[in-house]
Amino acid sequence: MLNPGATGHLAEWEGETPSSIIFRSANGAIAEDIHGKTYLDMTSCSGASPLGSNNTVFTTRLAQAMEQETDVLPSPVSEQRQLLAGKMSEMFPDTPRVFFLRTGSCATEAAVRIARYRTGRPVILTAGFHGWHDIFQQPPWSDNPPAKDQHIQDYQYDLGILEQQLARNQGTVAGIFFTPEPSVFPPELLQEISSLARLHGVLLVVDEVLCGLRYAKGGYCRKHGVKPDIITLAKGVAQGVGLSAVAGTADAMAGADRAYLGNTYLRENRAFVAGNLTQEIFEEAKIVERLAERGSALKRQFQTSFERSGIPARVLGSDTMFDILLPSQKHGRAFAHRCLQHGIYTGYPGTYMSNASMNAAFFRVLHAALELALADYRKDEDMTAQVTDASMVDYCAEAFHATEKACLSNRHHWA
Ligand SMILES: Cc1ncc(COP(=O)(O)O)c(C=O)c1O
């Protein structure tokens, strides 16, 4: 039986924190709930909306295109899909064969299946969050899951554990899976993991569902000179419309030819039209550069507000995706609570993501809301508590399920 005391994410979403808010509408990075209270979205709709909600260029072009295009087709093999596959191959030239799915979790599970079919081996060594599907329900994303897949082993971003797992499972490892978390882990960690994958003859699978279309043009691996066998992508592919992708080398994707990956709703032509338009707008409006520029302003806003209020905090990460570290989980939860009260939509732990719509008016409202949130936070919490290495170790365990060693051995990156 399930432990009724254990809280999962759904309970959390439907309980007291962010999701007790019922949204009605959003424009750009400002959303409104059913009571008319507005929130400044720090999550870019969980990364799904790099352009911001209701972006008029996107919505107008989509409406126009759909006057000519078909909504749903008898087969998933369509002109729009092939067009989008071509664009993705150009963007991710090291992994040119692209297969589409709907959600990020669809893509990560498909990547595992492809790796297993390609190698004929069952074991996946994994670090980081890959979605809600059963195979990835290791803690902290699920407390004591009733079904554990013994072939999925979490190395918790720890090279020592990874090396032990590679030795213990010699001959049975299909691939090493890795989610980049640029706030904490440097690119060299992935470079080392890539070398280990080559050394042991296993596939390197990188989960770029969150970062692939925002961190840098062509994604995290390309930016840092890592050549993966497979990457997974989703957020930002089609501006909030459900579409994800597995992109791989021709060799790795031979695994897809034997695996069953069919799914009904890839017949939804509208999603591919949305994907093609999104990628067109990304090019035309230099969206990745804009995300970095707005993200840099967002980071600066938090940094200066914390400094001016004399609040111990650290803002860590890249311009397009960063985390805020407070002395303890208790401090973090109190901060997020005060933010929500004052209309800043965030959580703790949480990744802050810019969107291209964040303009001067948005930053003015954010500045005022943040001052109020920080003033209340100061009153409630112990301001003598500092952000220490222990705060970071705790954060890494909670947010990424990383070990203390994994966190501290990358101290040079985040300290
Ligand atoms: C790195 C990563 N992988 C996989 C997923 C799962 O994507 P989805 O929620 O669309 O299933 C997410 C979602 O947040 C993610 O950030």
From TrEMBL:
Entry's EC annotation: 5.4.3.8
Cofactor names: pyridoxal 5'-phosphate
Transmembrane segment boundaries: none
Keywords, sorted A to Z: Aminotransferase, Isomerase, Plasmid, Pyridoxal phosphate, Transferase
Keyword Acyltransferase: no
GO molecular function: glutamate-1-semialdehyde 2,1-aminomutase activity; pyridoxal phosphate binding; transaminase activity
EC top class named in words: isomerase
Family of this protein: Belongs to the class-III pyridoxal-phosphate-dependent aminotransferase family.
UniProt-recorded name of the protein: Glutamate-1-semialdehyde aminotransferase
